[in-house]
Design brief:
The complex is a heterodimer. By secondary structure, chain A is α/β, with parallel strands linked by helices. Chain A contains 13 helices and eight strands. Chain A has an eight-stranded parallel β-sheet with strand order 7-6-5-4-3-2-1-8, with helices on both faces. The radius of gyration of chain A is 18 Å and the shape is globular. Chain A starts with a helix and ends in a 25-residue tail after the last helix. Chain B is α/β, with parallel strands linked by helices. A seven-stranded mixed β-sheet of chain B has the order 2-1-3-4-12-11-10. In chain B, strands 5-6-9 form a three-stranded mixed β-sheet. In chain B, helix 1 links the parallel strand 1 and strand 2. Classes of the chains: A alpha/beta, B alpha/beta.
Chain lengths: 290, 197
């Protein structure tokens, strides 16, 4: 199992500097791959539609996921509900490359997350702060992403979560040992993981940005704030010209420090996803699974 | 004035390029990131094509106009090392998991045929150790959704195989590895590559 954890963390390292796109059909998956996505997230409904439809949202039909696995050569991820380890077992059985134990779906358990150490396939989990991130890593997650507020096209929560995480990491890195013991207690996280953050000045696993990213500028913003790559959910296939927008976001992530290039990429993209402001939404997903 | 220290270009479009930079740093070698055509113009003694997603890298490379200039430099003798996805970018021919030919535009300067995703999905990823011809004994090898080298031209030398599948090959100034030397603490492969300068 030791090797599996290592290999699973390392697969996330290979995704760095890349864009992971939500897709609902093999056709969309092919568009994403051709645009330069480093992986796709297969799901029946993108977050904006989950939000619009309301009701209970579950793991996607395995048949639909398999169709997407067949359509592309890049890694295919899929979501299961928080705490729903049988959905995770199903995704492992169809050899998914990464499972997202996701707050975008309706949580199946309001106390326990999945014991991810029991699985061979890797897990990515959402986090709003260092406490959530280290608890998920302790449970076996090998990749972290900000929660953001999915399906809104509003980047504010992703920014908030990334800024919070980076500022906490800087603070932890500056602590003396005595303070680390107390911080572990306060944050409700294992000391050894906190010590690792202190020693290395970063999370022990790769950290992506997710939730509300809709433009090349949003993606470059998240990268400049310290994300190692981005997830784009509704932002692409809810926009006027998905193909063009997908390509532009991929290149903005590569050249995130070059404003001239990001400016060129931002031209003529057609209509962005309409989006909803955080004050206008009814279901707050970021509070699920802490 | 001639530079005494080596300077290595690392393709930084997507993937695990920072890991290669850290490896070079450990060896006291300077490196710089290539994200676009103007970066590529920098002085360099060698080039590393990192691991990541080859389709993503190939797509960005093509749009940035990087393929032709890189091809030209390799033809003129610039030492190049491709790891995993980087190996696919170097290969003249790539075959998909379903047996079809991969048509993406890439560098393609090395006379090898690679089989993509040769060990299946992430569940097929593995770690082993192996002796590499002329490089060293018992070197840790990390294979992640890895390809293998299925065929090769007559000028290509095989440096290592795992389970009868070629995993390291060299053709003059080009070195292709189907695994990730940048993910271990072992610097011998990078040292070997630097000796090709």
């Amino acid at each position: 199992m030791e090797n599996r954890q290592t290999l699973n963390r390392q697969l996330a390292q290979m995704l760095k500097g890349g864009v992971i796109m939500d897709v609902t059909t093999p056709e969309q998956a092919r568009i994403a791959e051709a645009a330069g996505a480093c992986a796709v997230m297969a799901l029946e409904r993108i977050p904006a539609d989950i939000r619009a439809a309301g009701g209970v949202s579950r793991m996607s039909d395995p048949k639909m996921i398999k169709g997407i696995q067949k359509a592309v050569s890049i890694p295919v991820m899929a979501k299961c509900r928080i705490g729903h380890f049988v959905e995770a077992q199903i995704l492992e059985a169809i050899e998914i490359d990464y499972i997202d134990e996701s707050e975008v779906l309706s949580p199946a358990d309001d106390i326990y997350h999945i014991n991810k150490h029991l699985f061979k396939v890797p897990f990515v989990c959402g986090a709003r702060n260092i406490g959530e991130a280290l608890r998920r890593i302790n449970e076996g997650a090998t990749m972290i992403r900000t929660k953001g507020e999915p399906g809104t096209g509003d980047v504010i929560q992703a920014v908030r979560h990334m800024r919070k995480m980076q500022s906490e990491i800087r603070h932890i890195a500056s602590m003396v040992e005595d303070e680390l013991y107390e911080a572990a207690k306060q944050l409700e996280v294992p000391y050894n993981l906190l010590k690792q953050v202190h020693d290395e000045g970063r999370l022990p696993v790769v950290n992506f940005a997710a939730g509300g990213i809709a433009t090349p500028a949003d993606a470059a913003l998240m990268m400049q704030l310290g994300a190692e790559g981005v997830f784009v959910g509704s932002g692409i296939f809810k926009s006027g010209d998905p193909k063009r927008r997908a390509e532009a976001i991929v290149k903005a992530v590569t050249n995130y420090q070059n404003a001239k290039i990001v400016a060129e990429l931002s031209e003529d993209l057609g209509e962005a996803m309409v989006g909803i402001n955080e004050q206008e939404i009814k279901v707050i997903m970021e509070g699920r699974g802490i | 004035m001639r530079r005494i220290r080596h300077r290595v270009a690392v393709l930084a479009l997507q993937g695990a390029f920072i890991e290669h930079e850290l490896m070079l740093q450990k060896l006291g070698v300077e490196s710089f990131e290539v994200r676009n055509l103007s970066d590529w113009m920098g002085d360099k003694d060698a080039l590393i094509l990192p691991g990541g997603e080859s389709t993503a890298m190939a797509r960005i490379m093509k749009d940035e106009g990087l393929i032709e200039p890189i091809k030209m430099s390799i033809a003129q003798g610039l030492p190049v090392m491709g790891t995993c996805a980087g190996c696919i970018l170097l290969a003249s021919k790539a075959i998909e998991a379903d047996g079809s030919i991969n048509n993406m535009e890439r560098i393609g300067t090395m006379d090898i045929t690679v089989q993509r995703n040769a060990y299946g999905r992430q569940l097929g990823s593995f770690i082993t150790a192996q002796n590499l011809l002329g490089i060293g004994c018992n070197i840790p090898l990390t294979f992640i959704r890895a390809p293998y080298i299925k065929g090769k031209g007559e000028n290509v030398e095989i440096l290592a195989s795992v389970d009868d599948r070629i995993v390291v090959a060299r053709e003059g100034n080009q070195l292709a590895l189907t695994f990730h030397p940048e993910l271990t603490d072992d610097t011998r492969i990078h040292q070997y590559f630097l000796s090709m300068i």
